[in-house]
Every structure is written in structure tokens, then in C-alpha cells.
């Protein structure tokens, strides 16, 4: 593969893949879970520390293995083929493709916000309980359009990524600056008045004080949305083989991109806390807290601006994930762990068939309507794989201390230990207090075990 992506392009992939629809929505659920401005800020700060710490640790592995496949390659190199396959299996079945589907549908929903007739339009097709709506058609169209653009070469994909990521970063900055100077009634002090006392109101039936273990359970549940809004930055490692000077630029892109996005996220939440009261954040219509804040700041025109901003954001996010994910499945195919037809590049030097396989499966998830339920359950699995990869840095330091490392994890071993401690607490709290977020993810990964042995058995039969 040609090294066609520069540092700026890599940063755009990191930021563009991270910023989707989550930051505009999930703060509503965080407020319902904890009912305090302080806790809302704490949840985002913990998520920021986790995200940047993981990016710093991944940098060491990206410098050691500067080739396409990213996290799949790291896990395979450190822990063996089966571990790498289970990650790749989870990535294809729902993590990558489900994220593409969810963000594309968010694009469709905000399109319908601008064109209300789409909400009430008769289904395009209905057979019993199964129906295909215009919103789903828009989502699938976006997936197929961006897949087609990315089959025309890395240059085409990176141009779209740079334009849309730059646009949504600029728009977020404008929202933040506009919020600082144009808020008419400031609720910030009111939202912080309760201090660290936590409250919960999950069904709109009134706030109740919570304490002790219930607070920790609330923090874990609240972090599900914050974590999901902050993932996908590792997508840049999937295209490491196409980045100029990957040993240096991949880690730079990850650390710089994640840090900038988390700063933007924190400022956005300060605007929400300043523009809206507690109930307005917790019970914003359809959880569109950013739209509610924009309406307070700019009136009805603000909601239109925000809807367009989210459409720009989701479009760029889908492009970043489409661009990078297909490289993992191509690498898996070369290892004999995915469909063989995904191996080859087209005349533009990109894995066209892998891109279309990814796009078609993501489109089918759009039609299923189940991707949303799946995504609620995979933040746990995503963090587990993050933890395993971060632990891989420490494992390699122990097993191969003399290995030449072009980049070493900053503040090692504090950085990986910090991530592992926070990640472990997050996972344990979810297992105890929110098992519905954990067991489906475990089952999804475990299904990959017999699939792995079946694939390897077929390979042995073919060789024989």
C-alpha cells in the first residue's frame, strides 16, 4: 500500500471517527442517571482520561507494528491468532458495522428533523412487523455512497474526511463560543448547587437521592454513553499501512486527536449546563440535548443550525469508519480468517471488495433495526478489548524487554495501570449493576470461538 495519508489526514480520521452523534445526545442520559452537574462533568473527565491514556498506550504498539490491521494486528502479534480473530469477529458483526449503521440512521433522523414529512411518510415497504422507512433508506444511501467514494482511492476518502471533520470541528467551536457570549439565562451555578450529592430520575417520575454503591452503579451506566461517544479513535491504526512515517505519525495522530476531541466534549457539556436546567438536560426531546441548548441560545433558527451540524458530524463520522474498517477485514482475509475475496486491492490501491462487504452488512443492520440494542451492549466489549490491548503493552515489556521500541508509552507504567484500573472498575460495576449491558456482549464474543475453530478446520481440510 502507498503511504498517501499525512499527519493531518490521520488526525482528521481520529477526530472524524470519534465525533458522531453521541456528544449531541448522551448527556441527557448521564443527567438522568446522576442528576448533578458535578457528576456530569466527572463522568466526562473520567472518560477523557481513559481515552487519552489508551491512545498513549496504543502508540507503543503502533510504532512496533506499523502496518494495516491496527488493533487486530496488535492482539494477534501479542496474544495469538484466536484473540485477534475474536476482536475482528466482534468488529465485523457489530462494533464497526453497527456503529456505521447507528450513525447513518442518526443522519437520517436529523434529516427528518429538517424535513418533518419524512417522519410521517408511509413505509417504503411493510410486511407484517417488518417495515422499511425512509429514514432507513437515507441511512443505507449514505453508507453505500461513502463506500463507493472510498473505493475510488484513499485520496477520495481523505478529502471527504478532511472537509467534513474540519466543518464539524469549526461548528462545535462556534457553538461553544456562541454559547459563552449569547446565553440569556445561565443555569451553570444552579446545576452545580447540589455538589457531589447524586440524584436519579430514569423515567421522569421525580428525582430521588442516591448514595454509596448506587452512585457507582449510576456512574458506570452513565459512562456507557460517554465511552461510546469517545471510541473509534483507534480506527486510524487500521490504515497505518497507508500513513506516511507510521511509526511516528500514528501515535501523534491518536494522542493529538483524542485530546482535542475530549476538550471539545468537555466545553460542549459546559454549554449544556449553562444553557439548560437539570430537567431540560435530562428530558430533552428524544435526548437531543444539543438541539435544546441551541434553541435556548439562538431560538428556532438554532435548532436548524444544530440539526445541520449533526448531519455534517454524522456524515464525516461514517466516512472515517468506512474508510478504516475495511482494512482490518482485508488483513484478516490475508491471515485466512475472513472471506478470501476481501484480500485484493482494486486499481486505485484500496480493498474494494472488503469495503463493499462491510457496507452491505452495515446496510442489513440498518434494515434489522436491532443495531441500536446491540450498540448499547458493546461499550462493555469495546472496553474489554481496549484493556486487553493496553495490557499487551505491559505483557510485551515483560516478555520481550529488549525489543526495539521507536516510541515508549509516556509515564509508563502509570499510564497503562491507570487505564486498567478505571476500565476494570467500569466493567465490574456494569456486571453488578447493569448486567443487560454485559452478557449479550460476552455471548457475541463467545460465538466467535466455534467460528474460529470451524474456519481453522476448513483450512486444514483444504491443505490436506
Please give the largest β-sheet.
2 strands, antiparallel
Instruction: Indicate the percent of residues in helices.
Output: over 70%
What name goes with the CATH superfamily?
Amino acid/polyamine transporter I
Q: What structural category do the secondary elements indicate?
A: mainly alpha
Helical run tally:
19
**Quaternary structure:** single chain
Q: What CATH architecture label applies?
A: Up-down Bundle
The percent range for strand residues is under 5%
GO molecular function, one term: L-amino acid transmembrane transporter activity
Protein name: Amino acid permease
InterPro entries: AA/rel_permease1, AminoAcid_Transporter
Organism: Sphingobacterium spiritivorum ATCC 33861
Write a structural description.
The protein has 464 residues and is mostly helical. It has a single domain (5-460), classed as Amino acid/polyamine transporter I (Up-down Bundle). It has helices at 7-18, 27-34, 37-64, 71-79, 81-114, 117-120, 134-151, 154-182, 188-192, 213-229, 235-238, 246-275, 278-282, 289-298, 300-334, 352-368, 371-399, 414-433, 439-463, and strands at residues 125-127, 130-132, 198-200, 208-210. The strands form two sheets. The protein has a two-stranded antiparallel ribbon with strand order 1-2. A hairpin with a 2-residue loop joins strand 1 and strand 2. The longest helix is centred in the last third of the chain and has 35 residues, at 300-334.
Amino acid at each position: 500500500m502507498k503511504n498517501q495519508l499525512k499527519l493531518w489526514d490521520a488526525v482528521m480520521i481520529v477526530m472524524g471517527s470519534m465525533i458522531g452523534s453521541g456528544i449531541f445526545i448522551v448527556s441527557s442520559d448521564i443527567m438522568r442517571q446522576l442528576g448533578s452537574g458535578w457528576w456530569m462533568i466527572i463522568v466526562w473527565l473520567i472518560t477523557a482520561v481513559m481515552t487519552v491514556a489508551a491512545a498513549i498506550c496504543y502508540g507503543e504498539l503502533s510504532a512496533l507494528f506499523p502496518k494495516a490491521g491496527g488493533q487486530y494486528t496488535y492482539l494477534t502479534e501479542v496474544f495469538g491468532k484466536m484473540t485477534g480473530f475474536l476482536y475482528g469477529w466482534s468488529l465485523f458483526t457489530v462494533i464497526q458495522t453497527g456503529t456505521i449503521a447507528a450513525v447513518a440512521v442518526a443522519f437520517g433522523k436529523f434529516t427528518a428533523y429538517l424535513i418533518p414529512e419524512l417522519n410521517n411518510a408511509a413505509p417504503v415497504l411493510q410486511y407484517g412487523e417488518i417495515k422499511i422507512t425512509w429514514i432507513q433508506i437515507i441511512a443505507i444511501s449514505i453508507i453505500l455512497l461513502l463506500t463507493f467514494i472510498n473505493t475510488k482511492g484513499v485520496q477520495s476518502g481523505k478529502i471527504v474526511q478532511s472537509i467534513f471533520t474540519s466543518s464539524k470541528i469549526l461548528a462545535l467551536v462556534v457553538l461553544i463560543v456562541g454559547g459563552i457570549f449569547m446565553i440569556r439565562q445561565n443555569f451553570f451555578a444552579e446545576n452545580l448547587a447540589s455538589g457531589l450529592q447524586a440524584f436519579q430520575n430514569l423515567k421522569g417520575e421525580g428525582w430521588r437521592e442516591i448514595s454509596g454503591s448506587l452512585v457507582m452503579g449510576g456512574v458506570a451506566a452513565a459512562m456507557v454513553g460517554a465511552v461510546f461517544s469517545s471510541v473509534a479513535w483507534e480506527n486510524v491504526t487500521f490504515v497505518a499501512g497507508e500513513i506516511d512515517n507510521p511509526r511516528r505519525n500514528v501515535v501523534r495522530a491518536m494522542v493529538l486527536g483524542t485530546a482535542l476531541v475530549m476538550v471539545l466534549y468537555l466545553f460542549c457539556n459546559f454549554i449544556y449546563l449553562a444553557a439548560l436546567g437539570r430537567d431540560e438536560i435530562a428530558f430533552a426531546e428524544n435526548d437531543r440535548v444539543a438541539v435544546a441548548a441551541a434553541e435556548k441560545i439562538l431560538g428556532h433558527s438554532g435548532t436548524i443550525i444544530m440539526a445541520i451540524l449533526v448531519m455534517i458530524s454524522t456524515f464525516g463520522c461514517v466516512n472515517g469508519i468506512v474508510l478504516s474498517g475495511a482494512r482490518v477485514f482485508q488483513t484478516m482475509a490475508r491471515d485466512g480468517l475472513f472471506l478470501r475475496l476481501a484480500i485484493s486491492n482494486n486499481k486505485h490501491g484500496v480493498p474494494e471488495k472488503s469495503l463493499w462487504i462491510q457496507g452491505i452488512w452495515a446496510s442489513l443492520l440498518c434494515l434489522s433495526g436491532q443495531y441500536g440494542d446491540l450498540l448499547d451492549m458493546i461499550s462493555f466489549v469495546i472496553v474489554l478489548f481496549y484493556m486487553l490491548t493496553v495490557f499487551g503493552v505491559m505483557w510485551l515489556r515483560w516478555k520481550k524487554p529488549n525489543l526495539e521500541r521507536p516510541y515508549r508509552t509516556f509515564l509508563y507504567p502509570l499510564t497503562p495501570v491507570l487505564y486498567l484500573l478505571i476500565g476494570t472498575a467500569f466493567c465490574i460495576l456494569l456486571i453488578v449493576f447493569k448486567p443487560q449491558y454485559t452478557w449479550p456482549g460476552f455471548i457475541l464474543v463467545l460465538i466467535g470461538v466455534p467460528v474460529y475453530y470451524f474456519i481453522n478446520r476448513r483450512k486444514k481440510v483444504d491443505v490436506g
